[in-house]
Amino acid sequence: MPQNKRFTVDEIDFIKNNYSLMSVEALARQLDRTPKGVRGKIERLGLKLSEIPRNIPYSWSTEDLQILKNNYTLPDYKINELLPKFSLAQITRKRLELGLRKHTYEPYIQSSYYQTFRDGKRVWIHKEVAEQKIGRKLSECEVVHHVNGVKLDNNPNNLFVCSDKQHHGLVHNSLAQTAFELVKQGVIKFNHSTGKYYSE
């Protein structure tokens, strides 16, 4: 479990999207971090912790269960809006206990990438496609590079798995070096009026 490691952009986005729906403990489990570290990050981001009581006994009424059964295909955070007395973790747990498993949602764009939700968990499409391509899960350090620079193009041939952020930086540097070589060859030109490179 990371202790002093800096929070990634993805982790910060996850906290911002879920801090009002999940307990600090649930966020910590999801991010594989300590509750103390997550609580501190929430405070540093200036976010107000949810006032939903997390540690009191709870029970599901017949009406609550019916609402869950009628709406289980919605994202769990949407179900939480219909059942605000339960935490997001409680809703997900009860839904899975009842065998109410949902389909993948239509992907949407966040932070310039396609993502979706599946069984209450966020899934980055480009990472999932890359994992299918290499036949295993990505490690925590690995970064998925989009070859053509288009983050929404998740064709497997457009994805390359870098060993870490430094490797990813080297890949981008190689592109810059190649571009400058093409400038020297006259393939890419520079417009001094617009301040932009272009190709004929």
TrEMBL record:
SUPFAM superfamilies xref list: His-Me finger endonucleases (SSF54060)
Secretion signal span: none
Record-annotated HNH nuclease domain positions: 124-168
InterPro entries: His-Me_finger_sf (IPR044925), HNH_nuc (IPR003615)
Protein name, per record: HNH nuclease domain-containing protein
